[in-house]
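Forum: Protein Structure Q&A
Topic: Joint prediction for protein chains with partners

I've read a bunch of threads here and the consensus seems to be that you should model interacting components together rather than docking separate models afterwards. I'd like to see that in practice. Below is the full input, 670 residues plus whatever partners are listed. Could one of the regulars post the assembled result?
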Amino acid sequence: MSWAEIIRTGLEAVRSHRLRSGLTMLGILIGVAAVILTVWLGEGAQDKVRGQINALGSNLLIVAPGSTTTNGVRGGFGSASTLTRADADALTSHVVAPDIRAVAPTTSRSAALTAGSSSWTASVVGTMPGWLSVRARAIGTGRFISGEDVADHAAVTVLAATTAEELFGARDPVGQSVTVSGVPMTVIGTLTAAGSSASTNEDGQAIVPITTAADRITGGASRDSVQNIYLEATSGHTLSAAYREADYELLARHRITTPTAADFSITSQQSILSTATSVDRTLTVLLAGVAGISLLVGGIGVMNIMLVSVTERIREIGLRKALGASPRVIRRQFLVEASVLGLAGGLLGTALGLAGAAILPSLISDPISISPTATVGSIVIAVAIGVVFGVYPATRAARLAPIEALRSD
Amino acid sequence: MTPTDSTSTEPTPNDSTPNEAGAGASATVIELTDVRKTYRSGLFKVAALRGVGLSIEEGEYVAITGPSGSGKSTLMHILGCLDVPTSGLYRLAGEDVGGMSEDQLAEVRNRRIGFVFQQFNLLPSMTAWRNVELPLCYAGGPRAQRRQRAIDALADVGLADRVEHRPAELSDGQQQRVAVARALVTNPSLILTDGPTGNLDSASTADVLGLFRRLHDVGRTIVLITHEAEVAAAADRVLQVRDGVVTADSGPAAALRTVRT
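Posted by a regular:
Agreed with the consensus. Here's the joint model:
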């Protein structure tokens, strides 16, 4: 008997027991839908985190001030701002750090901006021209802060998209005047929208020269200190070289001999990314595992129903054997039935998963990422489950002695 | 007790009988020599057949009869290659069936034997012609040809107009005719039927027995197993089985009628 014939017979058997086949498929269907939805949700969450972190800029290293050690007593992180503009300047040297393309020291504080009758509380970032490239942002209108602006302590500002809209609405802010913490400044440009996330609002910023910020907005005793130094490596491959160069130079500048006693820390975007996504991945694996158990239960359902089916169809099996079906053909027929149930369950489960993917994101406000790998994988697993759990019932059917089978009434 | 009269029947080549192995050599369809069958039932051994020897020639119409427990069902199973003897020799159309594997037995059943059962054993989800086609599916062959052969076989039993009916839409007598068509469709060496009229009323019984008679008249070899004397009387030769042995044999004389088409 040819495979085509066996498959036709198997399909007929599945079709002639619609209710039972449907219920059996239901187990697989729910399992597959649960698995793929979990994986899709997990991948969606990972994509979201990845997107947020990539929005920080590309090939990014972030130097943060660390703890200081005074008289052998180590202070906590942030006990003093140990990074200065001079540190940042040193890293701009292509001799000292050939793998660093751009450097942007930043200070930031929240301040009230007013323009005419509008006011808006923005995160005022004091920085240098390199910031635009390092943070992967783009100019919408006008221009960005120049080196002269920084040198001149110029009272100029570049507004991020939301800030510009809040203060000026649809009008072009370039050339307009805005008051930042009581200091009148001229708007020289705007930034395009970068998108906001739960943790940061990149579009609610106002950028000023770092010198201006130190003089007139941040104030305080240490006008040279900065909150962070953002570094952009020349490429993804030179990221670790850039990391070493920055680390070496800063240790030397701070006269620290043991690297573990460093009063600063350097993190890469990659390390933030992997930390953030590994948490998500762990959760996804855990949930997919739970969903996988339901798939397993579905498989046991297939086996159960196939065993019932074999018992119920003893007479048919006996007849088929009497008419010339070899044990091999009988086994194949039942295996095909089981895998048809698995395949149908897998396909319907995927359909249910797609329906869920269409509805769920609006209910739980989480993104979903439909991955073809997870989908195809689930269908393959569903068929495999049908086959694996069909082997035992099929073998039982194949082993039935024809006279026993025909005798049963 | 072991009537062997094979010399008196000339080996007639017959195109309608797919008797490749035996063609030209012998026209003996069934040859049993001292066949024994012992079942193990718990601690006890039950001897169902205790040395059966018989020979059935091509074209014979034989009834095997006996009370229940006589061993006639066991004999039917062995004749039908559904079971193998514990000892003894069984040659079906010249082929030694003893020692064949499950797969080989399946093939022998498919090619050599057409079964007609008491309970019809039609698959309810399939139409008449699909039921008749079933043995051809296991034999292989192009679909169109299988369908044509199934329809021809149904025409042979007078059901040309019931080809697309399902078993539930047919009367008992018609269902048994479908079963007979299914037994005929592979053109087997032997039609083996176990109580074919057991579930039929007298009109349908006469109908089916008439059908067997017609098949016999065109040269089919038929072995009919029954416990009803009147059904057995329809055959040309009657074998009595009792306590696992053949106790009476009306002889193969009737088979000598050389009715050929």
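Residues 59-83+102-256 of chain B form a domain with the Rossmann fold fold (CATH 3.40.50.300).
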